[in-house]
């Protein structure tokens, strides 16, 4: 049996599925503006690239801009891209086809909100924050979340000469501190929403822990294995009816303790899911 057929078999046999996804999932879907000066990145960020020469939005986070006003213009343009550009490949549609009607929960360190565009929000845990909101830089008295979409709609048209006017820089309604992106600031707010995202995952595990659980990991890299990969390994080890699958073109690996209950697929995530989707469709038409 080849690995594609084995993947389909394990999904079919599972009572419940937990999908864990990292940045490789976004890259597989063609969202290649994070770490490179791709055509998609250059289409929207040519001014900032020409001036500062950083490649990809992620590198822009750590660039020292000439002014706070220019930095805000960069952030607003970045948010417009992240929130509005659709996946360039049907990777998430392929994943839907693979999961079918199985009970499923998605755990992701991605902040790009893509999972919530394809699956119900109560099935998704964004455990490292989301680009959906900003927060106050001073969280001692303000633990509100501020809508990114509203901010972009209101402020991006006000940007002039690649700068947001100083008086328009968003501030907390409560203590006047400047707003920061919740997913990227060192003051990351571990507030109500943060705990709710983890509680959704915990509840799903509690509801299905006596069943046959498939842990399906995709695109988790070496930067943050402690949030998804290592918990998946540990839970597979202790839940004897469980199985672990890792799809990753760069880092398809497992823990030796669960090697006999692991399937490693070191190929492009989109291409794997595309082949899976085609096979399932073919079987449905038989």
TrEMBL record:
Organism in which the protein naturally occurs: Lactobacillus helveticus CIRM-BIA 953
Q: Sorted alphabetically, which PROSITE patterns does this protein's record hold? A: SIRTUIN (PS50305)
Query: Does this UniProt record's set of keywords contain Transferase?
Result: no
- InterPro entries, from UniProt? DHS-like_NAD/FAD-binding_dom, Ssirtuin_cat_dom
Q: Which residues form a coiled coil?
A: none
Q: Which UniProt keywords apply?
A: NAD
Say which domain of life the source belongs to.
Bacteria
**Which stretches make up the Deacetylase sirtuin-type domain?**
1-283
* Protein known as: Deacetylase sirtuin-type domain-containing protein
Signal sequence coordinates: none
């Amino acid at each position: 049996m080849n690995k594609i057929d084995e993947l389909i078999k394990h999904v079919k046999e599972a009572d419940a599925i937990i999908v864990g996804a990292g940045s490789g999932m976004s890259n597989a879907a063609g969202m290649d503006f994070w770490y490179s000066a791709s055509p998609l990145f250059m289409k929207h960020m040519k001014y900032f690239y020409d001036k500062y020469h950083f490649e990809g939005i992620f590198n822009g986070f750590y660039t020292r801009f000439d002014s706070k006003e220019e930095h805000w213009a960069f952030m607003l343009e970045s948010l417009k891209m992240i929130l509005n550009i659709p996946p360039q490949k049907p990777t998430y549609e392929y994943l839907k086809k693979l999961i079918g009607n199985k009970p499923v929960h998605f755990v992701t360190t991605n902040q790009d909100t893509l999972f919530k565009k394809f699956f119900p929000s109560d099935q998704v845990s964004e455990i490292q924050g989301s680009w959906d909101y900003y927060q106050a830089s001073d969280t001692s008295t303000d633990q509100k979340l501020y809508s990114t979409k509203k901010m972009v709609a209101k402020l991006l048209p006000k940007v002039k000469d690649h700068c947001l006017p100083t008086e328009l820089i968003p501030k907390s309604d409560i203590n006047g501190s400047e707003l920061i992106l919740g997913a990227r600031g060192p003051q990351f707010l571990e507030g109500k929403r943060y705990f709710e995202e983890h509680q959704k995952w915990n509840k799903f595990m509690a509801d299905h822990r006596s069943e046959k659980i498939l842990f399906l990991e995709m695109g988790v890299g070496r930067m943050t294995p402690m949030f998804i990969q290592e918990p998946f390994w540990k839970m597979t080890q202790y839940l004897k009816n469980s199985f672990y699958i890792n799809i990753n073109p760069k880092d398809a690996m497992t823990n030796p303790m669960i090697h006999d209950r692991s399937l490693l697929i070191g190929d492009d995530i989109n291409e794997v899911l595309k082949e899976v989707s085609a096979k399932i469709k073919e079987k449905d038409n038989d």
